[in-house]
Amino acid sequence: MIIDRLYEAVESKGHVCVGLDTDLSYIPEFLLKKHTNISDVIFEFNKTIVDSTADYASCFKVQIAYYEAYGLEGLLAYKKTLDYLREKKEIIIADIKRGDISKTAEMYAKGHFEGDFESDFITLSPYMGLDSIEPYLDYVKNKEKGLFVLVRTSNEGAKDIQFIDTAEGEKIYTTVGKKIQTLGENYLGKCGYSSIGGVVGCTHADEGREMRKTHDKTFFLIPGYGAQGGGADDVAPLLRDGNGGVVNSSRGILLAYKKADGKPEEFGAYAREEAKKMKEAIGNVI
Ligand SMILES: O=C(O)c1cc(=O)[nH]c(=O)n1[C@@H]1O[C@H](COP(=O)(O)O)[C@@H](O)[C@H]1O
Questions:
Q1: pTM over 0.90, yes/no
Q2: How far away, in angstroms, is 107 Cα from ligand 1 center?
Q3: Which residue positions are annotated as catalytic (predicted)?
Q4: Residue 22: CB within 6 Å of ligand 1?
Q5: For this structure, is 33 an active site residue?
Q6: Does 21 sit in the ligand 1 pocket, CB within 6 Å?
Q7: What residue spans define the domains of the chain?
Q8: Which of 18, 84, 106, 268 has the most CB within a 10 Å radius?
């Protein structure tokens, strides 16, 4: 099961998931000038970030919107980035947030678990129902692939729908989380967690401890660290026994050189330092 690979990566390298949400405006001028096409610019930036942070990262999350936004050149950069991560044996989470009827989902599964855009995990939205997740399950069972399903997201608007009380007297996200855990129990790895994980933001830390208890077999992808205001203390309740989740930071790492007003040529070194600091900060509180 792919979850065992991720669990072991967390054991050996820590909880940091580096987010490759590469906007052209994040890329230093000298790199923009060096290449004539966007795909080479984005790929060289990503390659430097991967090489600089890999010692401190258990996985990398690539948010596809940042690549789609640049059309075919962007998608070429996306593919090159995935190929490079695979070559380096890094674990890839493709943040594609899909969710559609089952025939369409079959094509999404093929598109992101096979071929040019193959990744290890993908993110899914469950709001069309569990039948929209079914087409991915054969890949989870037989092809070493995994899912992270949105449960309680990090944005302010999460409250608009996910926090509504159901007739059973619980929040919608609690119901979704329970359904994901029940489904996930069919795909447990040796580590005790399922290859069907849940996305739980660290920006509503208050219920974190309770969630960790009730979702004891669900591995969490935890966004919201850094740029969205989350810190190590917000993440700690969502992690258990020093494992049980990975924590994503994208802008916090990619833009570390700008925040420090550092030399643009040293953007990789700043990203490395930020990933190291994040790993240590989380290590200190769990
Ligand atoms: O699924 C996600 O990764 C995700 C879920 C969520 O609830 N909140 C959230 O921010 N994300 C993603 O996590 C990343 C956060 O980026 P930064 O805020 O720059 O660290 C982005 O790629 C978001 O799309």
A1: yes
A2: 24
A3: 97 (proton donor)
A4: no
A5: no
A6: yes
A7: 2-285
A8: 18
